[in-house]
């Protein structure tokens, strides 16, 4: 069997960089730090090398399907597959007042849901036996779902929900934001939390699909790192990056033979009922105009 390999997307800073740092000391294989900006990505690799670690770099723009396919082909040629995938790349535009709410919705849903979906669709077929996938979600999804109408919640939590319908709901949210009818249609005033719902639900669907294919040895889970002090939170979080990577690391280091958690959302290494989970988000997060 070829040497094991792990890929972390959007990893030149924050949680992604923290996961790469920890993987380099715990994973028995090569760890690829990927980033859209090659200069920043290589600088991050050099930072870790100065710490005595040995990450590798590969450019990856999850909004560019050809970029994802180039990474897939590289992995197949050099490793024969993939063992760990961390879908960490994402954006947060809630406080960007230069953009309208509709613009923030469209951009955030595209990256945090559709681009991560594309990355998974292209890379998951090359997952090897006992591979692990972790999608970096957020407890903002719980706050967003609490603002949704019962009808929207019912659609999102259908036991037989498929990716096509989930994507249709995400597109409906985009159009409703453009039409300024999102509240009337039962969607939340939350450009960040709702796409994270999509990522969390996508996780469950992908696990279900793998199980149907007889690939139950592969585990796909979502997690929230917690409120971590990073550039994305403008360093207002109460957790360090080292604390924030604990749950993602738990998900991607579940040993062979583990049967659960699978297709779930984890917080502090424990599966949570994110739909009914009551969480108090920071005051700056609550109002979005």
What does this structure look like?
With 289 residues, the protein is an alpha/beta fold. Helix content is 45%, strand content 14%. Strands 3-2-1-4-5-6-7-8 form an eight-stranded mixed sheet, sandwiched between helices. The N and C termini lie far apart (53 Å).
| Structural class determined from secondary elements | alpha/beta
Whole-number average pLDDT?
92
Helix content percent band:
40-55%
Largest sheet, in brief, is: 8 strands, mixed
Oligomer: single chain
Approximate strand percentage = 5-15%
Q: Helical region count?
A: 11
Low-confidence stretches: none
Give, in order, the helices and strands. Answer: EHEHEHEHEHHHHEHHEEH
Shape: globular
């Amino acid at each position: 069997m070829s040497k094991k390999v792990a890929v972390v997307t959007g990893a030149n800073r924050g949680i992604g960089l923290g996961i790469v740092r920890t993987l380099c000391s715990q994973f028995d294989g090569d760890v690829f730090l990927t980033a859209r900006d090659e200069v920043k990505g290589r600088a991050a690799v050099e930072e870790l090398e100065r710490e005595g670690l040995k990450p590798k770099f590969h450019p990856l723009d999850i909004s560019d399907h050809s970029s994802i396919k180039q990474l897939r082909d590289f992995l197949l040629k050099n490793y024969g597959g993939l063992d760990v995938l961390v879908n960490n790349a994402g954006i947060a535009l809630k406080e960007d007042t230069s953009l309208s709410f509709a613009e923030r919705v469209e951009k955030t849903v595209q990256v945090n849901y559709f681009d991560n979906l594309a990355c998974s669709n292209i890379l998951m077929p090359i997952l090897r036996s006992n591979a692990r996938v972790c999608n970096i979600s957020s407890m903002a999804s719980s706050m967003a779902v609490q603002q949704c109408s019962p009808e929207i919640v019912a659609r999102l939590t259908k036991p037989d929900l498929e990716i096509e319908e989930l994507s249709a709901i995400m597109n409906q949210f985009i159009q409703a934001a453009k039409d300024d009818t999102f509240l009337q249609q039962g969607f939340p005033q939350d450009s960040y939390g709702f796409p994270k719902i999509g990522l969390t639900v996508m996780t469950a669907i992908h696990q279900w699909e793998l199980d149907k294919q007889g690939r139950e040895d592969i585990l796909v889970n979502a997690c929230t790192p917690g409120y971590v002090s990073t550039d994305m939170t403008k360093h207002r979080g109460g957790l360090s990056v080292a604390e924030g990577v604990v749950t993602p690391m738990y998900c991607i280091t579940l040993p062979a033979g583990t049967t659960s958690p699978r297709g779930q959302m984890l917080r502090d290494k424990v599966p949570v009922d994110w739909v009914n989970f009551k969480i108090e988000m920071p005051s700056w997060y609550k109002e979005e105009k």
